[in-house]
Design a protein that fits this description.
Two copies of one chain form a homodimer. Chain A is of the alpha/beta class. In chain A, helix 4 (136-148) packs across helix 9 (270-279). The radius of gyration of chain A is 20 Å and the shape is globular. The longest helix of chain A has 13 residues, at 136-148. Helices cover 27% and strands 27% of the residues of chain A. Chain A has helices at 36-42, 85-88, 130-133, 136-148, 164-176, 187-194, 222-231, 253-257, 270-279, 297-306, and strands at residues 3-6, 11-14, 25-33, 50-51, 55-62, 72-75, 78-79, 99-100, 113-116, 121-123, 157-160, 180-184, 199-202, 212-217, 232-240, 261-264, 288-293, 309-313. Chain A folds into two domains: 3-135 and 284-313, Medium-chain alcohol dehydrogenases, catalytic domain (Quinone Oxidoreductase, Chain A, domain 1, Alpha-Beta Complex), CATH 3.90.180; 141-264, NAD(P)-binding Rossmann-like Domain (Rossmann fold), CATH 3.40.50.720. In chain A, the strands form four sheets. In chain A, strands 3, 5, 6, 9, 10, 17 and 18 form a seven-stranded mixed β-sheet that branches. Chain A has a six-stranded parallel β-sheet with strand order 13-12-11-14-15-16, with helices on both faces. The first copy, chain A, contains ten helices and 18 strands. The A-B interface holds A 86, 91, 94, 96, 148, 210, 225, 234-235, 240-247, 249-253, 255-266 and B 86, 91, 94, 96, 148, 210, 225, 234-235, 240-247, 249-253, 255-266. Strand 16 of chain A pairs antiparallel with strand 16 of chain B, so a sheet runs across the interface.
């Protein structure tokens, strides 16, 4: 089959990659999304070797569960061992022996076929298009915030960033919250949030400092992390959605003096994400930039660096 | 009066320092404690100028509240403006316009006299000695952990550090919790925790990794901060009690992937600390190393660097 393979240093399009192993559901990929994590992984992050890609919608072609065959599905990317305490607690995504689609010890979605355990799959309603369904995985990560935290409906919330993830986060938070400010760097991207009734700002003013109950970091940059400590009020909460590795000296004194709570936040629940797309509570149509074939992978990756969401059609 | 003055670069003993301003309770200092923060401040941390010291027990000599005069007291170190939302919420210690005894814009306790607002003072019961009462402020900081977090009684807890603060933290946590391990570097200090029934360890073994529900950082070192991410289990909680400033590249990826919650934790409630000393729920007698006069300040500071608790008698 055709597949985008990463050998640890460079990517290449293979045309004769072996089909996924049996013993799991075999899924024909209909559409996949390029995520910031994919771009980071190509830089060598996580020292992954294999087929990239973890955002996808597909069709089940083989499965022990006959009810799934022919169904359009999306899939949770963490596959737990099924034996440990985390798996027993329903937290397969924290299983110490897990594999992760296109990220850790499991071939991913930038291919014609992938495999996943049946229990990872969620059927997509007909009212949700393929283009929308590709957003379920990152949208679930946005829903994870309120899975972890109880945020009051009138809480003053700051979202840092205006890229893919930040756009999804403001769309999810606005369902239950009215006082949201999105801090970004790109006027045209911030305008997309403005259209949804979100307040937007380029740059932090003195009045913003230490005034937010909840601050969500979705820039993935060290400066974004430093800004969280500037914006959160004493005893406030900071949600870390993007991974941070500081290059410089990082001083946490402000966070400790102000008794800030930092919450690391990652993959989230698929059901509310699918539901939100099906009901229209969250719209993602304006976020799709372009669709490329696997053959035009190089071009697609260049586009993904600057655009909000670039899709791949195997 | 006699006072230990820090001019921003060096400390000196003044014999003719003016007495504290009026309009607040005037307190004759009976005994003061040297804290790690004092030692850091002498290095220029927080760019403070004035009399050092914030751990003390004293006797009220002047006050508008006649009931306080002659009483033995300890004092909360944060003095709020009394006008802002934080003060209205009873969180004077987070007031943006606060002064802090011996730390920020308010002369401290390494002197014959100090002043504080009446509402900051707590009368000490006769059953608590001066030497014990000096521990109320740092002990309150240890009680702050359970003020901020609800920790299950059977939670698996790690305390990192074996110095002053860590010793107080294990003493407080053992009141309600049975499964505590103290990770330190000094056998003789860890032995003090062992005597209280705390498990102790020098060094982290593979079996310890990602196995603790709650990890309390009280080393004040960058390596201690990195160890928290190694010890906390996925979805676990890390309490940051000592201020951290990393010198090297700091990678928070593990914390985000494992969805760790970090809680900055600082000053705490005085009442449970006084109560614990009065009832004997917490004993601090073994932590006191030596008592120096203000005249022997230099010697006292050298001792404080290596000892658990050094006291000053004005």
């Amino acid at each position: 089959m055709k597949a985008v393979y990463f050998d640890g240093s460079k990517i290449s399009l293979k045309t004769d990659y072996p089909n996924p192993k049996s013993g799991e559901a075999l899924v024909k990929v209909r559409l996949a999304g390029i995520c910031g994590t994919d771009l980071e992984m190509i830089q060598g992050y996580a020292s992954y070797v294999g087929i990239l890609g973890h955002e996808f919608v597909g069709e089940v072609v083989e499965s022990d569960n006959k009810n799934l065959i022919g169904k359009r599905i999306v899939g949770e990317i963490n596959a737990g061992c099924g034996k440990c305490q985390m798996c027993a607690d329903g937290l397969e995504r924290h299983c110490p022996n897990r594999t992760v689609l296109g990220i850790y010890k499991r071939d991913g979605a930038f291919a014609q076929y992938l495999s996943l355990p049946e229990k990872n799959l969620h059927i997509i309603p007909d009212s949700v298009s393929d283009e929308q369904a590709v957003f379920v995985e990152p949208l679930a990560a946005a829903f994870e915030i309120e899975e972890q935290l109880k945020i009051k409906s009138d809480a003053k919330i700051a979202v840092l960033g205006d890229g893919r993830l930040a756009q999804l986060i403001v769309r999810v938070l606005r369902i239950n919250h009215t006082n949201i400010t999105c801090f970004g760097k790109h006027k045209e991207k911030l305008d997309m949030a403005s259209k949804l009734g979100i307040q937007t700002k380029i740059g932090i003013t003195p009045k913003d400092e230490h005034s937010f109950d909840v601050v969500v970091e979705a820039t993935g940059s060290e400066s974004g992390f430093l800004d969280t400590m500037k914006l959160a009020k004493p005893r406030g909460t900071v949600v870390l959605k993007s991974t941070i590795a500081s290059k410089n000296r990082l001083d946490l004194t402000t966070a400790i003096v102000n008794e800030i709570t930092f919450v690391g936040s990652r993959c989230g629940p698929f059901r509310p994400a699918i539901q939100a797309l099906a009901t229209g509570a969250v719209s993602v149509d304006d976020l799709i930039d372009s669709v490329y074939s696997l053959d035009d992978l190089g071009e697609a990756l260049v586009a993904a660096k600057n655009k909000l969401k670039v899709l791949l059609k195997p």
